Amino acid sequence: MMNTRLGEKIGLYESNAFVQGTAFVLAIIIAWIFGRGRFSEILNTDKLYWLGGALGILITVTVMIGMGKTSPAVAVSVILISQLLVAALIDAFGIMGTEKVPFLWNKYAGLALMIGGMLLFKWKL
Q: Could you say which of 27, 33, 57, 69 has the lowest number of CB atoms within 10 Å?
């Protein structure tokens, strides 16, 4: 919500640049203080994993747009349901080297309950 309000004042992409830039600076400081890994190993990772930052900015922008067009509760509900569904698909198909976990009836039921809850929450009496 803070990013959306900032975007209303300075612009969507300008606020996103500020938010991502602030996060980058803080992440570098935290890595410098607490980090024990090696940045040099990034060259030995699957290049697909490098898309995490691009995905992060896409998520931030869509969250800001969603918050501005709907209520925060509905936007967060859609985000959580989407993340849960994508995580379940990653598990079910063993994407990115994860162990395959079957998508059984209880997961379908859980998603249905979440979607139903969001619709009930949005429903105006």
A: 33
